[in-house]
Design brief:
The protein is an alpha/beta fold. It is built from 14 helices and ten strands. It has two domains: 66 residues, no CATH class; 251 residues, TIM Barrel (Alpha-Beta Barrel). Strand 9, helix 12 and strand 10 form a beta-alpha-beta unit. Bound molecules: iron/sulfur cluster (SF4).
Length: 339
C-alpha cells in the first residue's frame, strides 16, 4: 500500500484547501512502514505509526479507548457504503507468524480475535443492506480452530446464503476436514491457500507458516469437502530474492498437478521486513515497492517472468473456469468481486 502515497499527498492537499488551518493527522500503513517519507513528504502536520496510536488521546485531549481489542471490536459504520456490491469482513487482527517478506508484525499487535457475536452481527448488518459477497481480510482467518468453527457454524445457522472469498490467502496447516466442510457449505469461492514456494530450503528460511505436506493435506480436505480441480487456488511467490524462475515453474507445475488454480504473486519489497532490507532504493522511494516493478528480478528476466505468468494462466484455463488475473496488488480474485 505504501506506493499509493501520491494519493495521500493529494488528499491532504485537498483537505487543507477545504479546511484551512485545521491540522491533519496521518496514520495507517504508509505512515507506519515509510514513516520518514510520510513525515517529510505527505504534508500532514502529525504522522503517527500504528504503535503510537495512543498519542491521539494526548493530541486531541480525549480519553478514547484506543486499545487494539476495542478497535477490533468497534462496530464499523457501513452506512457510508450504501451501494456496495461486496463487503470486507475481519474476525481477527494480526498473525502469530513472522514471514520474511511480510510486515504485519509492524502493523498489528499480537494476534487477537473478535468476539464471535460481534463478527456475526456485522455480517447480519451487511447482509441486511443487500450484500451477498464477502471477502475476509483476516491475516490468519482459520488459525484459531474453535473460534472460526464457532463463527462459521453461526453464520451457517442464520440461513443467509452468500459467497465468501479469501484474497489474503489461508494457512494450509489450519484447514481440517471440519473446516473445509464448513467452507464448502458456506460457499467459499475458490479458497486460496498461501504456499509461496515448494523448495524445502526456502520453506525454512522464508517462513514457518506452511510446508508442502501441510498444503497437500489441505488440498485433500478441500477435495473431500467437494471442491473439484480448479475450484481452489494457491499463491506462489514470483521474483523473490534468491528464487529463480525455473524453480518457480516447478512449483507451478506441482501445484497444478494437485488440481489447484495457480495464482502468482509478484514479490515487492516491504519496509521493515528482512527480505526487503537489501533494496535500498526501494526503501527510500515507496513507488519502487510496487510489485509491477519486479525489483528483485534482472531486467533480462522480465520477459521470462511474463512468460511464466502466461504459462500459469494457460494451465488454469484447463480447469474450465475464468483465468485468474493478478492485478496491481497481486490479490485480485476472479468472479463477481475484485478486492
Ligand atoms: S502468515 Fe501471512 S500474515 Fe502471517 S506473517 Fe506470514 S505472510 Fe504475514
Amino acid at each position: 500500500m505504501t506506493y499509493w502515497y501520491p494519493g495521500v499527498i493529494m488528499a491532504i492537499k485537498l483537505l487543507k484547501e477545504v479546511y484551512p488551518g485545521v491540522p491533519v493527522i496521518l496514520g495507517g500503513i504508509y505512515a507506519s512502514l515509510s514513516f520518514e517519507h510520510a513525515a517529510g513528504r505527505s504534508g500532514a502536520d502529525i504522522v503517527l505509526r500504528n504503535f503510537e496510536i495512543q498519542k491521539l488521546n494526548e493530541i486531541l485531549e480525549r480519553d478514547m479507548d484506543l486499545s487494539p481489542e476495542n478497535i477490533l471490536n468497534e462496530t464499523i459504520d457501513f452506512s457510508w457504503y450504501p451501494k456496495s456490491r461486496y463487503a470486507v469482513l475481519k474476525t481477527s487482527l494480526g498473525c502469530p507468524f513472522n514471514c520474511s517478506y511480510c510486515a504485519q508484525r509492524l502493523l498489528n499487535p499480537e494476534f487477537m480475535l473478535k468476539s464471535i457475536d460481534k463478527a456475526v452481527e456485522e455480517f447480519k448488518i451487511l447482509y441486511g443492506m443487500g450484500i451477498k459477497n464477502f471477502a475476509f481480510y483476516d491475516d490468519a482467518l482459520l488459525l484459531d480452530k474453535k473460534h472460526i468453527t464457532g463463527y462459521f457454524e453461526k453464520i451457517l445457522s442464520l440461513g443467509m446464503p452468500a459467497k465468501f472469498y479469501t484474497p489474503n490467502g489461508l494457512h494450509a496447516k489450519s484447514v481440517s476436514g471440519e473446516i473445509a466442510g464448513l467452507m464448502r457449505k458456506l460457499d467459499f469461492i475458490k479458497p486460496i491457500l498461501s504456499l509461496e514456494t515448494t523448495d524445502p530450503e526456502k520453506e525454512r528460511t522464508w517462513h514457518d507458516k506452511v510446508s508442502l505436506n501441510e498444503f497437500k493435506n489441505a488440498v485433500s480436505f478441500l477435495k473431500e469437502a467437494g471442491y473439484r480441480h480448479g475450484e481452489y487456488s494457491a499463491y506462489i511467490l514470483l521474483g523473490a530474492p534468491g528464487s529463480d524462475l525455473g524453480e518457480t515453474k516447478e512449483a507451478v507445475d506441482l501445484v497444478h498437478g494437485m488440481g489447484a488454480n495457480v495464482s502468482l504473486s509478484e514479490y515487492s519489497p516491504v519496509p521493515g521486513t528482512s527480505m526487503g532490507e537489501g533494496f535500498l532504493d526501494a526503501m527510500a522511494e515507496p513507488l519502487l515497492q510496487n510489485n509491477s516493478v519486479f525489483p528483485a528480478l534482472r531486467s533480462s528476466d522480465w520477459e521470462s517472468a511474463q512468460g511464466l505468468k502466461n504459462y500459469a494462466r494457460t494451465l488454469n484455463s484447463t480447469w474450465g473456469f475464468p483465468s485468474p488475473d493478478p492485478g496491481a496488488n497481486g490479490k485480485v480474485i476472479e468472479g463477481e468481486i475484485r478486492v
